[in-house]
Amino acid sequence: MPHAAASLSVLLRRLSSHPSNSPAFHAALLKSSSLSSPIPATALLTAYAKAGLPGAASRLFDEMPSRDAVAWNALLACQVRHARPAAAAQAFRGMAAAGFAPTATTLCTMLKACASSRALRPGCQVHARTVLACHGDAIMTTALVDLYMSCGRVEEAKKLFAHTDCPKDVALYNAVLSGCVENGQFHEAFLMLGGVGLNGITLTCALTACSATANVAYGLQVHCKALRLGFDYETVLCNALIDMYAKCGRTAGARVLFDRMAGRNVVSWSSMIDGYSRHGLGKEALDLFKRMEEAVPIVLPNAITFLAVLSACGHSGLVNEGRAMLHLMKSKYAIEPGPEHYTCFIDMLGRAGQMDEAWDLYCSLRANRNELYGAISVAMLNACIVNMDAVRGNTVAKLLVEVDPQNPRILVLISNFHAAARRWSVSDESRKVIMDKGLRKEAAITDYRT
């Protein structure tokens, strides 16, 4: 028996460190009849979750002869890890039906599920349970702050942070800081930095705020702090620095940082290409993309990379190169272009006056991809405005109104189109619809996410 227990202990340690081999360990545990105990069965379930096999984890749980609270929590964590909030809620109810009271771990996991799905009402119910159960440590408070920030309830999150009795650690500060950044409260984010011990996550959040506000002076201070604390070799932080410098107009500084990076991932390459795109440096963006294709170790471009390259081509009038990129992403990398790629390419063709090709592409997309219709139609109408193509523009405008008659942005665009075509009465009519229906065009915002 002692020998069997030692062998099981060794097996479970190997399982924890090599979750990708879970099926093989599953066979060994079955052979030794160890899965009758919840401890090895739960360890295997957790390994399946880490290996990206939530289905296998769920099946294993269903087959477990006995389950304890730890097993239920492992199942909950698996569902949340793989973005399955409905399955997590079902497991939560099943745990209660089986007679197990939710532990602090259970409630914390459910808060993560509610935060990821922006489910405020269920999240508030879980919050009430934490109060009744007197769970108020830093981990729980961090999960609650993340919930309210994710649901846009910034004031509630800040009140929780201000009135908590638990010691405020770096993770809690980072939850408030990142939440302020995600909700566009950049001034609040800057104020938070004074009272927190800095780590890589904190500095990355601060750089995101600098990028969104084009605050290069503060960005330089954050960069200096990262150098002093030794975080300048972290890939995620370096990516945030590249994005900050590029959005603040310091493309040369961004490139120096990029060239000095020890390990570049697809975000690094895409951020630098996007930096060139933002400033009309299409040739530099294309040169960098070609260098990416030749990079060792291999880094494959993704849809975001190609969007940055297409945007660079569009801003620099490189139509032939943009057309080649659209073909390359499909033929070489098997990436299906999305509405944003086709929108960018139609805009590029419109700027270059190549309306026949833009119209042919638009018509083919309308016929084959109904889900892309709205975004691409807006791009096509903009092209018609630029090229004073009243006939095609009128067709697109009518279709847009049929699809989304309550969208004030589309109505304003249609009004501008008719004004450009000197159809003043029709233009005024579109404006009148906006006023009569009480519609308001939302102000544009800067995309600060990286």
From TrEMBL:
PPR repeats lie at residues 68-102, 169-203, 265-295. The keyword Transit peptide applies. InterPro entries: PPR_At4g14850-like_plant, PPR_rpt, TPR-like_helical_dom_sf. Keywords: Repeat, Transit peptide. Transmembrane segments: none annotated. Gene3D superfamilies: Tetratricopeptide repeat domain. GO terms for molecular function: RNA binding. Pfam families: PPR (PF01535). One of its GO terms (biological process) is RNA modification. NCBIfam families: PPR. This is Pentacotripeptide-repeat region of PRORP domain-containing protein. The lineage of its organism: Eukaryota, Viridiplantae, Streptophyta, Embryophyta, Tracheophyta. The gene is LOC100823931.
